[in-house]
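Hi R.,

Here's the chain you asked about this morning:
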Amino acid sequence: MSNRQKPKNRIPLGSEPHRGPAHIEVLRQRQQVERTPHHGINAYHCDTCDKNTVTIDVDPGVTPMFLACRRTPDCPGQAASSGYPSTDPPPVVLMRLEWEWALPTVDEFRKLSPEMKAHVDAGGLVLQPYSGRPSAYAGVPPKPARVSS
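And here is the predicted structure, written out as C-alpha cells:
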C-alpha cells in the first residue's frame, strides 16, 4: 500500500457545495484567470453535411473537441472543432453564429445530469443557443446585424 496522501486542497468531484450561486461565482472567478489568447469564436465542421456549426465562448472555460452536428436539421453527423483559428472570423462566419458556450445559471446547473455537473465543476462550459452576449475574450467583434432586403 502506498503512503502517499491525497492533496488536501482538492475536493473530490461531486462533493463541492455546488448547489448555489456562490459555487457558480467561484467557477467564474477561477476561469477568469485561465483565459487563453484566442478570440472565442470556433467552428465545428461536420463531414456528413459538409457544414460548420459556429460557436462563441461567452464565459471562459473548456469546450469539447467533438459535438453532434447542429448546422443541418436532422444531420446524424459528428462535427469536429477547428481549434479556435487564430485569424479574425470574416463577417459571413459571424452571421452563422447561433450557439454559445457558457457557464450555466444556478437553476440550469441544478437540472444538469451528474456527468454534466462534473464537467462544469472541472471548468467545462455548456452549449446553448446564442444570446447575443459578447465573447469572454478581448477583441471579438460584435455579431453584425442582418441586412434586410
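One quick note: The helical segments are 21-33, 91-95, 106-111, 114-121.

Cheers,
M.
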